[in-house]
Design brief:
The protein contains 1 helix and 8 strands, in the order αββββββββ. The chain has 139 residues and is mainly beta.
C-alpha cells in the first residue's frame, strides 16, 4: 500500500512540474537554428508569467531594441522583458505577448511544454499565421 501511495504522490508532483515553464530557457532562432539567448521565465504577483533576456549568446547588430514601438524602444535587449502577461490555461500558457527584439514586432503568444522543451508560438490574429520556436531547458 505504501508503494502505491508513493507512486501516486510522485506521479502527481511530476505532472505538476511538467506543466510549469518557470526557469531559464535557451532560445533557438527559428530562421537560422542558432542558439540566440537565455530567457528566464518567472511568475509575478499578478499570477501571470513573464520572461526576460538574461544572457545573449549571439551579439546582436544593435544592443538596443531600436524598432520596438512601446516602452522597450531604445532599451537594452539584455534584461528586456520579451514575454509578458501569460496565463496558465490547462497545459497551455496563453493570453500574453512575445516581442522579437530584432524586429521590434510584438505577437500574441502561446507556450506549451514538452519535457525539457518549450514550444513557443508567436502569432498575429489567428494562431494559424505565425512563427514557432523551440526553447530548451537550461540545465
Amino acid at each position: 500500500m505504501k508503494k502505491i501511495m508513493f507512486a501516486f504522490v510522485a506521479l502527481f508532483f511530476a505532472t505538476l512540474s511538467y506543466a510549469q515553464i518557470e526557469g531559464k530557457w535557451k532560445t533557438i532562432d527559428d530562421e537560422t537554428g542558432q542558439e540566440k539567448s537565455i530567457v528566464e521565465i518567472f511568475k509575478k504577483s499578478d499570477g501571470k508569467y513573464y520572461g526576460k533576456v538574461t544572457q545573449l549568446l549571439i551579439k546582436p547588430a544593435n544592443a538596443n531594441c531600436v524598432d520596438c514601438k512601446d516602452d522597450r524602444k531604445n532599451k537594452p535587449i539584455l534584461g528586456m522583458e520579451v514575454v509578458r502577461g501569460l496565463k496558465k490555461e490547462g497545459n497551455e500558457f496563453t493570453g500574453g505577448t512575445i516581442t522579437d527584439p530584432k524586429t521590434g514586432k510584438t505577437y500574441k503568444c502561446t507556450i506549451t511544454r514538452s519535457g525539457d522543451k518549450l514550444n513557443v508560438r508567436g502569432y498575429i490574429g489567428f494562431s494559424l499565421i505565425g512563427r514557432n520556436q523551440t526553447w530548451h531547458k537550461l540545465k
